[in-house]
Amino acid sequence: MKVSRIAILGLAAGTSAQQAMEIFPGVKIDGYEIDPEIIKVGSEYFAMGDDDLTVYAKDARAGLSQSSHLYDIVSVDAYRPPYIPWHLTTVEFFEEIRAHLSDKGTLVINVARIFNDRRLVDALYQTIGSVFEDVYVVDLPDSLNTMIFATKKSSNFNNLIQNYIVVQDTEEPDQLLLQTLEVAILNQQPNPDAGVVFTDDLAPVEWITNSMVFDLIFSDNMDALQ
Where are the chain's structural domains? Predict the structure, then answer.
């Protein structure tokens, strides 16, 4: 599948956009970042000025709803625990994303966990799963980050292995792409069987994240974060 256009919700200083352009030469990217000062920093210090990147100083959900494009990938990287914008966690938000994906489009979202406390991951898995056909969970090693992938149409995680073989057999394989595929293949997690479904009417994200933080503070795991 050729990746022609990507939306990044939570562009920050543009690092993920640069990585995407390295892997998919010529791809068009729409980046949404609510803080103009962060955009300014990205432009001044991170060379965020590529002609293929269009930057919007807008709220991610509002900006996406106004877009006339369909995207092959929508990446959500707007969570900064414990401060997570609840309106970017709901069924209605993910329905908006699905409506802006191409037929073979994929959602990828960066979610935090705290060691074995996966309540936020589980809730988002269930919420996204109520909108998308197939959903996959991958823990990033040596971090507290989990990636959730969701496809608009039916898919199979084993296809990732086949794609890895195809990339590896090319004359000059992209090493960043190979490394990314390896991490995903080796760190897929079992799909959670429970979790809250967030909606615009009820999205107790703050309650969950605050509870996770307080449980950590009063646990024996604080030293592990040093």
Answer: 5-225
